[in-house]
Each structure stands twice: as structure tokens, then as C-alpha cells.
Automatic annotation (TrEMBL):
Protein name: Thiamine-binding periplasmic protein
Pfam families (alphabetical): SBP_bac_8
Recorded GO CC terms: outer membrane-bounded periplasmic space
Molecular function per GO: thiamine binding; thiamine pyrophosphate binding
Family, similarity comment: Belongs to the bacterial solute-binding protein 1 family.
Keywords (A to Z) from UniProt: Periplasm, Signal, Transport
Organism: Mannheimia haemolytica (Pasteurella haemolytica)
Localization annotation: Periplasm
Family matches, as Gene3D superfamilies: Periplasmic binding protein-like II
Superkingdom assignment: Bacteria
The keyword Signal is annotated on this UniProt entry: yes
Keyword Signal: yes
Length: 236
């Protein structure tokens, strides 16, 4: 199941339906997807010889030093909040307390947390299954790996949208169509190091990546998310 962090804005009434043409099948006409990424924990295979094989193992193993992002300030952290609650259900508050015992830090955003991991401050860091591609492209190394989890991985979709107040809706729709052109998908997927939504013309490295199981997911209400955040905050 693919999730998006745009659940609340979708109901806001601020956005217009797009009219842009695309080869991609979409179930709605508000948000126009341009890339996707599956959440995963990254590790250095030269340092960590026995990585966790499931989210529950990651949470329960006290020998692992973990870094992830704050779900109040980071979309990646918010995705992790949903992931944990999907796997643990009513036991999520207990899981957060267990994880907190071997969490090095919870950072405000992806850049600082990933940077801390690269400095050797943790064994694993929350990121995306595509993150190892960056190191292959720019550092010519394959030592960084996204750990596949038995429960499956949540998928984040990044979208563009047109505000209802726009005076240039025709131009905006042209831009959305531009985002799905092969050259655009190549640039976006390469620089964001995220999966393209259309595969024409993109780097073949994406197709060569390992396959990661996707977890089934039911989008929560705003009230449910607030409760999950409160439960997470109490774990510290």
C-alpha cells in the first residue's frame, strides 16, 4: 500500500483538480506524484554483520544503536510513526519505550540524522531503500545496505499540486506534465535518489535494486495521528 503525507491537505479544499495528461494511473485528481520512496533502515555491511531482519527485531535488540527522525518535524519520521503503529497496533507505545532504550538520538530532519550515521554514531539510520544508490553513484561503494524487513516497508509518495487560487492553471498543468517526461523523471530520481513514478529514460540502477516487500497500510485520521504522536512523546 502506498502512503502519502498529504492526507490532511487533501481535505483542506485548497487544491484544484489537475488536468495534466499522464501515463500513470491515479485514483484521484488532486495530487500529482513525481517520485516514491520506501522507508528502510540503512547500515554499513562492513561494520554490522548481523543486521535486523524485521522491524520487531530492530526494536527489541538492545545491542543496536539506532537513529531516526522526529515524527513532529520530519516527513520521514512521520512515516516511521505510521510504520511502527501499523506493525504493532495497540502495542506501539510499548515498542517506542523499548526502542528508546537504544536510540542514540532523534533528529529534526533527514540530513542531520543521516550525517550522524555516516560519522559512525549509530549502527542504523532511518532513510529509504534507494539511499545506497547515492553511495554507489558518488562514492563508488556498495557497503551501505537497506535492511529488508519481514513485515514489509511503507512507501512514501511525493506529489505536486495546483492551488485553487492559481491564476495560471493551464501553465501549472503543463508543468505537471513536464514532471512526467523521461528527462524530468531521470533528473528527479537521480538528484532526489528516489524511485521514479515512470521508468522511461531513468537510470537502470533503479531496476537492478533488490525488491522490498510492501506492507499493507490503512491511512489514519488526523485524530489518530495526534494520539500516536502523544504516545511516542511519552516514550522518552
Amino acid at each position: 500500500m502506498i502512503i502519502s503525507c498529504n492526507l490532511k491537505p487533501k481535505k483542506s479544499g485548497l487544491f484544484a483538480e489537475f488536468e495534466a495528461k499522464t501515463k500513470l494511473e491515479t485514483q484521484q485528481k488532486i495530487f500529482f506524484p513525481y517520485d516514491t520512496g520506501s522507508y528502510a533502515f540503512i547500515y554499513d555491511k562492513e561494520k554490522l554483520k548481523n543486521p535486523p531482519k524485521s522491524l520487531k527485531e530492530l526494536v527489541e535488540r538492545q545491542d543496536l544503536k539506532v537513529i531516526y527522525q522526529d515524527p513532529r518535524t520530519s516527513s520521514v519520521g512521520r512515516g516511521f510513526l505510521m510504520w511502527v503503529n501499523q506493525v504493532y497496533g495497540d502495542e506501539a507505545p510499548t515498542a517506542w519505550k523499548t526502542l528508546a532504550k537504544h536510540t542514540v538520538t532523534v533528529g529534526k530532519g533527514w540530513s542531520e540524522t543521516y550525517g550522524a550515521f555516516l560519522k559512525g554514531e549509530s549502527d542504523l539510520v532511518l532513510s529509504y531503500t534507494t539511499s545506497p544508490l547515492y553511495h554507489k553513484w558518488h562514492e563508488n561503494t556498495d557497503k551501505y545496505v537497506a535492511a529488508p524487513f519481514e513485515e514489509g516497508h511503507l512507501v512514501q509518495v511525493e506529489n505536486a499540486a495546483i492551488v485553487k487560487s492559481s491564476q495560471q492553471k493551464a501553465l501549472a498543468n503543463q508543468f505537471l506534465e513536464f514532471l512526467h517526461k523521461p528527462e524530468s523523471q531521470h533528473i528527479i530520481s537521480y538528484h532526489n535518489v528516489m524511485n521514479p513514478v515512470l521508468t522511461d529514460g531513468v537510470d537502470p540502477a533503479f531496476a537492478a535494486m533488490p525488491t522490498y516487500k510492501t506492507i499493507e497500510f490503512t491511512p489514519p485520521t488526523t485524530e489518530t495521528i495526534q494520539k500516536w504522536l502523544a504516545d511516542w512523546s511519552k516514550s522518552w
